[in-house]
Design a protein that fits this description.
This protein is of the alpha+beta class. The protein has three helices and six strands, in the order E-E-E-H-E-H-H-E-E.
Length: about 140
């Protein structure tokens, strides 16, 4: 699945009226990801959330800053420069994992392994997400 646009990290939980809730920006992004996930169910899920162990791949493509020179932009697109600015990789993955809860898998505790995970620059910002059920059993 491809999630078009800039990735939004999972924000710190907010507290109010005796309960916790997501900040509005995180909540909206998770709703957006859920809608896309429902339309792009993995074929292995057969229209229902999986209940088995899964591997999650999450590749984040950030927009190249417009202020950069033509040469620096080209280096970024050629993977010679990688994003070291916020959002943090793990905060983006957390939001995506939460959004897939109850859609692609029953609970995000089923994510027992990660495939490729990282941040790169690209002309068009997006997040690539893939789910696999073929996971390493740890037996070598």
């Amino acid at each position: 699945m491809v999630i078009p646009g800039e990735a939004v990290p999972q924000g710190r939980p907010r507290f109010g009226r005796g309960r916790t809730y997501d900040p509005p920006k995180s909540r909206k992004y998770k709703e957006y990801v859920r809608r896309l996930a429902r339309k792009n169910m993995p074929p292995i899920a057969l229209g229902r959330p999986l209940t088995c162990p899964v591997r999650l791949t999450c590749v984040i493509y950030r927009a190249v800053p417009k202020s950069w020179s033509r040469r620096k932009r080209a280096d970024a697109i050629a993977d010679k420069i990688r994003p070291t600015t916020k959002p943090d990789l793990d905060n983006v993955i957390k939001g995506v994992k939460d959004a897939l809860n109850g859609v692609w898998y029953k609970d995000d505790s089923q994510v027992v392994e990660y495939g490729l995970v990282g941040k790169w620059y690209a002309e068009e910002p997006r997040v690539y997400v893939r789910l696999d059920t073929e996971v390493d059993d740890g037996q070598g």
